[in-house]
Every structure is written in structure tokens, then in C-alpha cells.
Amino acid sequence: MISLTNVSKTFPNGIDVLFNINLHIGKEEFVFIVGPSGAGKTTLMKLLYREESPSAGKVVVDRVNVAELDKNQVPYLRRNIGVVFQDYKLLPRRTVYENVAFALRVTGAVRSTVRRKVMQSLELVGLLRRANSFPDELSGGEKQRACIARAIVNNPPILIADEPTGNLDPTTSRDILQLLDKINKRKTTVLMATHNKSIVDDMKRRVVALEAGRIVRDQMLGGYDV
Amino acid sequence: MFSNLEFFIVEAFRSFRRGAIMTLVAIGTISVSLVIFGMFLLLIINMGNIVSTISSKMDITAYVEKDISLESAGALQLELSKIPGVEKVDFVSRTEAWRQFKEDFGSRLTLDELVLSNPLPHSFAVAVRNPDLLPSIAKHISKIELVDEVRYSGKLIDQVKSLVDAVRVGGAALIILISFATLLIVVNTVRLTVLAREDDIYIMKLVGATNTFVKWPFIIEGVMIGVIGGFVSFMVAKFAYDAIIMRVSHALPFVPVVSDPRLLGFVYLSMVAGGMAVGMLGAYISVSKVLKAEGE
Fold first, then answer.
1. Residue B209 touches chain A, beta carbons under 8 Å
2. Distance between CA A139 and CA A145 in Å, rounded?
3. I need a labelling partner for B165 at 20 to 30 A (CA). Which of A114, A122, A193, B238 fits?
4. Quick check: B296 pLDDT over 60?
């Protein structure tokens, strides 16, 4: 599903973030990317949905070489990848429903389809009763659920979550992980970057550890530490 | 597509309302710029009108001896009209000339109290085909026996001609300059409304919106801002110009003021259309820039 071959990334200011990354992730896998801040987790994920382009190497997502993708095709790539952020990135003046619907509307979906899919998505994340609330009126966990609902409303085969529990308490974090697990079981490949040791240890999934831009460990059924 | 159009319009109205202060600033800026543009256009049109009025009035006035009979006046008119280059000869009786004079200046002076009898002679207004012929024809007429005195605005011709050219060239250049300045101001103002919504654009791009899709709501919003700004400027300009017409025609009745509703309608329409165009262009340029800055 996802395949990085000899990928390196140097920012325009000369700072090297990723060195010779080789990583292959199969369909419907659940993978944790762990490592200290600045290790390159976020950059690695941005390469997948082409917010960044690699300086060298090949990034293939769903049989498409993302690095060489024509600019006009990038939107269609992104419709196949749901992205969840630590800071949620919800639009503040829109209700939960509108935030989720927005992601569908920009793909040109018609109103009736939008309504059905948004409702399904909100039901899946358990946020139906908050559909008409504004982000300000939600708890951190609810905001993250709304963000996840937006990410999956288009039924993307891949879900990328960049520190989704970074701002949440342990109990809420566990709820979010259960939700991501549920989404993974619906045949969505999930890639999650995190610092959260206890969650990684509990879940016993594949763990890819990054340090200073290099993969230092890639372990099935791993823990946060070796 | 229909469903998308609905989305674009809903989004445009939404951001229009949401950024109320920014929207008002943009409308205000466009209005002020267009009022300046429109009033300047009217000024240029009026200068052109004054100049062409002057040059069309450049005829020769031949004053004849006071006690001339109507028969010899008729014969003289025929003779004058036969001179090569003369287009038209009008007889102006001394009564008519006096009446006209009083009409032009009578509101300012009570002439009848100052002058007891009509001091003016009969005259002929000789219009020529080409202002260049004025000197030679004037000379020809002055040699006719019954003609007392010949007057024509000889020195004025060259001045008026160069004024016509100056107004035409300078006016066009200034209109282009002001249009460009207006566009720059509007682009930068609309740019602020776009920049205020960079987050929206980022999210739209992230969830897979194409650039075209991102642009439309902004362009529609730009058009709305532009049309409203254009309409406000039209109201202001019309109000101001109508007041100016009234003052000028009272205080300076001999200055011709353009009041042709078709021409004024064209100016006002061009202000609204111009507002729409700069609003649209401003939004398009701004949103394209933001999209470019976000990379890919």
C-alpha cells in the first residue's frame, strides 16, 4: 500500500531531516511511527500526501509514485488519504457537521450523498449528538473525534494520524486509539506518529522507530522501547 | 456542476458575512478608488466638451453698418455664402444680438438701466469648413464695402488645437494610470480578505480540493465586493456630479457642462463594471498567490 525506497529529505535551508528511508507498509496494517521530536516523523508522513516532496528516492502510495505525481493530480491523491492532526485543524466558525461535510463538498459530492456519509462518519466516531456544536464547544477528545470523522468521511484506504493524542489525557487517548483500531478493522491502513509510550506498548502493533532521520527499528508486535 | 455552483455561492456569502469588517474595508476602498476614477473621467469628458464647444464656435463675426437695409443685408448674406470655404452664414439682427446678450449676462447686470438703447449693430455669423481658412476668409470679408468690422478668434485657434491634443493624450494617460492604481489598491485589499482565510484554503487543499474548486468562492466574493463597491461609488459620484452641474450652470452659465444621460450612464456603468472587474481580478490574483505559496 505504502512504499518508501531510499528516501531522503533535505529542507531548502540545508537541514537534513530524513536519510535513506526504506519502509514498506501493507494493506490494512496498523503502524506506529515513534521517536523523539525532530526525528522526522511528521516529514515522513507529509511525504505521503505530498505536502512535502522527497529530495531523493521513491514514495509510492497505492501504486502511484507520489514524488513524480503531476501537480493537478495531488488533490485526487489526497482524497485517498485521511489526515488527523494533533491540533485538529477544525474550522472554528463551522459546526462539526459542516466541518466534516466540507471535506466531502470540496470533492464535488452532491448534497444528499454528503448528508448520508457525514452522518455515517459521525456515528462511527460517536459524535452524532454533537453534530451542530461548534469546535469551541467541544472537549479535546470530541474535537479529535470530529477531526477523525472528517478524515474518514471519504472512505480513504489510508489514514494518517500525526500525534493525535498529543493534547489529550490518558483515558481520552485510549478512546481515540480504540476508534483508530475500529477504523483499521474496517480495512483502512492506519499510520500513526506518537510519543505516547503506554499506548504503543498496550496496542502491540508494528512499530517503526525513527531517530535523527533514520529508521533505527522496525518491529512487528513491538513496544515503544526495544 | 450545479451542486458545486451552489456550494461556491454559499461559501462566498458565508465568508462575505463572516469577515464583515474586512469586507467593509474592501468595499470602502473600492468605492473611494472608483469615485476618484469616475470623477476624473467626468472631468476629462467635460474638458474635452469645453474644448470642442470652443472650437465649434470659432466662426467669423462680420459687423455691418448700423443703418443697412434688410434687402442689402440679404444680398450681403448671399455674397458671403459664396466665398470658398464658407459653410454657413447666419444673419444676427441687432435686436436678436441684444436679446442674446441680455440673456447671457442679464441676470448679473440690469443692463436696461445702464444702457438706454441697443448699442449693437447687425452682424453675420460666418461658419467655415476648416479653422485653418479663418484668416484668409476674414481678410476677404473685411474688404466688402458694407462690412464695418470683422472679428475672429485667430490667436485662439492654435491654443485650442494644442489644448484638444493635450486633453486627449494627457487624459487617456491619466485614466490608464488611475485605472492601474485602482487595480493595485483593490488587489491588495481583496488580498487581505483572502489571507484572512489561509486556514480554510489549507484545509480545503488537504482534503483534496482542486485549485479551481478553491478559487471559485473567492472569485464570487470578489465580484460581490466589487459590484457593491462600484454601486456605492456610482451613487456618490452621481450625487456629487449632479450637485456640481447645478452649481456650475447657476454660477457660470456660459460654461458647457456634460449632462447627456447616455454619456453619464456610460460613465456610471463603467464604474460598476470596473468595480466588478477589479474585484474579480483582485480575488483571482490573491487566491492564486496564496495557492502558489502553499506549494503544489
1. yes
2. 10
3. B238
4. no
CA A17 to chain centre: 19
According to DSSP, the residues that pair with A210 across neighbouring strands are: A215
In angstroms, rounded to a whole number, what is the distance separating the alpha carbons of residues B176 and B255? 27
Q: Give me the helix-helix angle, B2-18 and B20-56, nearest 10°.
A: 90
Q: What is the pLDDT of residues B119-162, one digit of tens each?
A: 788 888 888 777 667 778 888 888 888 888 888 766 666 676 67
Give contacts of A77 with chain B, Cβ < 8 Å.
Answer: 208
Residue B206 grid cell = 488537504
Q: Is B7 on the interface with A (CB under 8 A)?
A: yes
According to DSSP, residue B120 is labeled: P
Q: Which ranges constitute the DSSP H helices of B106-256?
A: 111-114, 134-142, 154-195, 198-206, 211-251
The model's pLDDT over B244-259, given as tens digits with 9 standing for 90+, comes to 888 888 887 777 888 8
Put simply, the answer to whether B204 touches A49 (Cβ < 8 Å) is: no
Residue among A5, A44, A39 nearest A22 (CA): A5
Neighbours of B226 (CB within 10 A): 28
Give the integer Cα–Cα distance in Å for A67 and A61. Answer: 10
Q: How far apart are alpha carbons B259 and B257 in whole angstroms?
A: 6
Sign of CA dihedral B296, B210, B283, B192: negative
Q: How many H helices and E strands in chain A?
A: 7, 10
Domain ranges of chain B: 2-54+158-293, 59-152
DSSP result, A127-188: -GGGTT--GGGS-HHHHHHHHHHHHHTT--SEEEEESTTTTS-HHHHHHHHHHHHHHHHTT-
Q: Which three cell numbers stand for residue B140?
A: 476677404
In CATH terms, is domain B59-152 a member of 3.40.50.720?
A: no
Closest CA to B59 of B164, B168, B140, B134: B134
Which H or E element spans position B58?
Answer: none
* Sign of torsion over alpha carbons B188, B194, B198, B204: negative
Size of interface A-B (CB pairs under 8 A): 56
Distance CA B206, CA B202 (A): 6
Provide CATH code, domain A1-78+193-226: 3.40.50.300
Residue B40: closest CA among B271, B272, B273: B271
For chain A, the domains span 1-78+193-226
Rounded Cα–Cα distance for residues B224 and B227 (Å)? 5
- Spacing of C-alpha B32 from chain mean position: 18
Nearest to A106 among B18, B213, B296 (CB): B213
The one-letter code for the residue type at B235 is M
Q: How many CA atoms lie within 13 A of B230 on its CB side?
A: 21
Surface of B (139-198) touching A: CB under 8 A: none
For residue A162, the cross-strand partners are: A85, A193
